[in-house]
């Protein structure tokens, strides 16, 4: 079946000035679009992998933080235990040490 006005010649073949130029441009644009879709797909896969890796790192950091919290909790427990007992000698020594450091710093600043 022949269609008139679509760039056909008298023998039924398409003329190079109309249809084929647009078809080549269309195929070129389709190829560019395919390349862009492939690039977006690979980029989204890379983003997904990066998110998974970061989630693994965060999980590891949480477990490290939990172990640090256990150590800190044990230290605070020891301090509480010291504060419950009658550690008057220890408190006296700490107070005297603080006063000594204060006077040494005061004397050092005065001599400057």
From TrEMBL:
Residues 20-82 form the T-SNARE coiled-coil homology domain. SUPFAM superfamilies: SNARE fusion complex (SSF58038). It comes from the Eukaryota. One of its GO terms (cellular component) is Golgi apparatus. The chain crosses the membrane at residues 90-109. It is found in: Endomembrane system; Endoplasmic reticulum membrane; Golgi apparatus, cis-Golgi network membrane. Its main location: membrane. CDD domains: SNARE_Bet1. PROSITE patterns: T_SNARE (PS50192). The keyword Phosphoprotein applies. One of its GO terms (biological process) is vesicle-mediated transport. InterPro entries: BET1_SNARE, T_SNARE_dom. The keyword Transmembrane helix applies. It is a single-pass type IV membrane protein; Single-pass membrane protein. Keywords: Coiled coil, Endoplasmic reticulum, ER-Golgi transport, Golgi apparatus, Membrane, Phosphoprotein, Protein transport, Transmembrane, Transmembrane helix, Transport. Required for vesicular transport from the ER to the Golgi complex. Functions as a SNARE involved in the docking process of ER-derived vesicles with the cis-Golgi membrane. Belongs to the BET1 family. Interacts with SNARE complex members GOSR2, SEC22B and STX5. Interacts with LMAN1/ERGIC53. Interacts with STX17. This is BET1 homolog.
């Amino acid at each position: 079946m022949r269609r008139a006005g679509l760039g056909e010649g008298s023998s039924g073949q398409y003329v190079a000035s109309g249809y084929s130029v647009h078809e080549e441009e269309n195929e070129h644009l389709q190829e560019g679009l395919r390349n862009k879709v492939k690039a977006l797909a690979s980029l989204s896969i890379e983003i997904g992998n990066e998110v998974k890796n970061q989630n693994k790192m965060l999980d590891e950091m949480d477990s490290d933080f939990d172990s640090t919290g256990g150590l800190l909790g044990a230290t605070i427990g020891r301090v509480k235990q010291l504060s419950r007992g009658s550690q008057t000698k220890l408190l006296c020594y700490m107070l005297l040490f603080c006063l000594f450091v204060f006077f040494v710093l005061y004397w050092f600043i005065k001599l400057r």
